[in-house]
Each structure stands twice: as C-alpha cells, then as structure tokens.
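All the exercises in this workshop are built on plain-text protein records. A learned vocabulary of local backbone shapes supplies the integers on the structure line. Once this layout is familiar, the rest of the handout is easier to follow. An example says more than a description, so a record of this kind follows:
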Amino acid sequence: MNKLKKLLLLGTPFVCLSVPVLAVSCQKKPVYNSVKATGEYIPFNEYSRVGNLFDRKFSKTIFDRIQDKDITVETNYWEQFSYIDCEVISWADGDTVTVRSITPSFTYFGTPARGKGSIIKVRISSIDTLEEHLPNTEVDPNEKAFAEIDHAFAESICPKGSIVRLITNNWADNSHDRSVGEIFFGENFEKCFSVEMLANGYTLARLEKTVFNSFKANHNLDIKPSISDLLFPYLAYGINYAIDNKKGFYDQTKEKHFKSPQEFSNMYKAHGDMLSHSLTILDPAFDKEGKITPENNIYSILTKD
C-alpha cells in the first residue's frame, strides 16, 4: 500500500504538468505577420509608409461639367480623395483634431470644397479612442484617465503646428459638425494617423461592416475606389502588432494597461462594446470569445490570395 501511495504521489505532478502543455499546443498562432502583400500594396509590416500608396499615378475618367462630357485625366489617390494640406491647431482628444488649411482642397474643376485658411474640425475615421469629455455627461473617471494618455500620444506624434494632409471620401461626410477623414503626417505624408494609433496600442478600430464588405469586393481591383480599401490591411496589421508586441495600453509593465483587446473594449463605458468594430481586422488568435468567422474577417481573404 505504501508503495502504491508513493507511485500515485510521484505520478500526480506529471498529470498536472500535462494540462498547460496541452493548452499551449491548442492555442492558435497569429497569422497577421506571415501574410504577404500583393499587387500595389507595400509590405504590411512597413505600415509607417502607407502614405506612399497614395502617390500612385493612374488614369481616370471623370465628367467635365464645363465641357459636358467625360474626359480622361492623369491623377493619383491624393487627388482622387480631395486632399488638403493643413496645420494642426489643437487636439480635442485622441481622434478629433482642429486644423487650418494651408491649401485649398483639391478639385478637378470648379470651386474647392474647402478654401485656403479654412478652420476644419476633423473626426479621424477608422478608429475610436476612449472618451475624455462628453457634452452634458460625466465621463467614467477610469475611462477618462486612459483617454488622457491616448490624447497625449496623439499630440506627441502630431503636435500643434505640424503640417498634415487630410483626405476624405466625401467632404459632405460629417459627424457632429466634424469632417470625417484620414490624416497623414511625417516626411512626404507617409504615416497614417489611424494606423499609427492602432499599431502603438492606444485605440481600438471603428470599422463598420460596410467597410469590410467594400474591401472584400474591391481588394483585387487595380484601382481602389475608397480610402479604406487601401488602408484596411494596414489597420489590421497595426492592431494585431500592438497586441502581439504589448504596445501602448497592452504594455503590462505600465500601471494602466489591458491584458487583451476584450479587456480594452470593456473600458469604453460611454460607447459600450467596441470590440465588435474591430473583429473584421482582428487576428483570430487574439479572439478569446470566438466571435470571428471566415465571413467577417480580413484574414480569411488575405490567406487565400
């Protein structure tokens, strides 16, 4: 009997040790960093020069209202998305900036949508940072504390006086008196603000299902019809890179941090669940709740190419 007890005692650690080994072997491995860019896309891990995509020149047919006929023009993506160069005046929070235009917005003909010297309040598309202030509403103090950090990071990469480039799919696209668009900054406007905020771990994405459906339909087209069709895989790389490498709010050595995007999403007290807006670009390996399906995720598309 004593011998049997000894054998059982000796065997117990091996049984216990087998559990974590099995758990590790069943974990999904991230795929975001092994997917290769194709076509006009630059390598996804070179996300900090994604603005170079918009330099690409191509021919486009537009309707000339003066001549009352279709004409072909040589253009690029900056022009297609009515770019305007601006100076940063101030940041309201991590995703809302006020700028002063130093050029008129580009137009193929006619009056530009925004003239030189215009004051433009911009709601950055593709992301949604934690709330720092809300009109007539008290913000949860924990959310506000985190929001002050992402606000400070936004100001550090695009400080007051910075020259940035703003593009939009439509100048009539507004949100609460703010123009909705993407900001590019740095040398030759290579860096995209939304991508940088995701890659540095200071925000979750805000991507509607229509944006994913557009990418799904258009990602093999030679010329992309929308800004998000170009940026989508870089937004995806950015959010997953931050999680995988514990950047920003995922840095567990910092006092204020999140262990997962699920935990990050729970801090959005004002908006409620935000993770659902990131599922289309989240690597399945980081989906701890099993909400990603092949029908709603970019990597089901990119791994087929």
The chain has a mean pLDDT of 90. The helical segments are 2-26, 77-80, 141-157, 193-199, 209-218, 227-244, 261-266, 299-302. Residues 2-26 form the longest helix (25 residues).
